[in-house]
Backbone:
């Protein structure tokens, strides 16, 4: 899960078709040999499987995979997390937020609940990126939180986020 923010933009596939085919073939081969993946690798694979499901609008499956991946990163609390670990955790949180945001778009009768959940994940993502001192990524991803707050009509919170994000956008761009 290398942190290249452009790879995580909505509408951009995580892998090209050939890469996805090779990835799935490799997973099938590992399963056929009963190979157990190391926990961190398994968390990364679960994230990728979640992203593949997300790209096909299989959002419940995506959320299951993301939550399994997140459980690994949250389980590292018994030791100091590296910057890389924090970044990976933040990316999983971002994707959970994106998935719930998409659910809000697709299921308008439950949209408020989904936006609330997306808000929680986006806020957690920003907090983790702050802890990792990745203001450049905060600048990129805080826009998602702003959008959810707008839909929720949480004007006071939105003003706070906008005031916070403006200097970040001026320094790092968007």
Residues:
């Amino acid at each position: 899960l290398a942190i290249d923010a452009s790879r995580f933009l909505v509408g951009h596939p995580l892998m090209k078709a050939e890469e996805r085919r090779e990835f799935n073939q490799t997973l099938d081969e590992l399963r056929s040999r009963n190979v157990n993946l190391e926990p961190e690798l398994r968390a990364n694979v679960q994230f990728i499987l979640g992203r593949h499901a997300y790209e096909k609008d299989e959002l419940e499956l995506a959320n299951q995979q993301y939550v399994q991946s997140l459980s690994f990163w949250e389980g590292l609390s018994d030791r100091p997390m590296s910057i890389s670990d924090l970044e990976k955790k933040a990316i999983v949180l971002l994707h959970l937020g994106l998935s719930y945001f998409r659910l809000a778009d697709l299921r308008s009768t439950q949209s408020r609940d989904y936006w609330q959940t997306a808000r929680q994940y986006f806020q957690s993502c920003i907090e983790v990126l702050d802890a990792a001192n990745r203001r450049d990524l905060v600048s990129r991803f805080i826009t998602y939180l702003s959008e959810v707050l707008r839909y929720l009509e949480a004007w006071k919170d939105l003003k706070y986020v906008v005031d916070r994000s403006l200097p970040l956008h001026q320094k790092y761009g968007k």
Remarks:
- The mean pLDDT is 90.
- DSSP finds seven helices and no strands in the chain.
- Helices lie at 17-32, 39-55, 59-74, 83-106, 111-131, 135-152, 155-172.
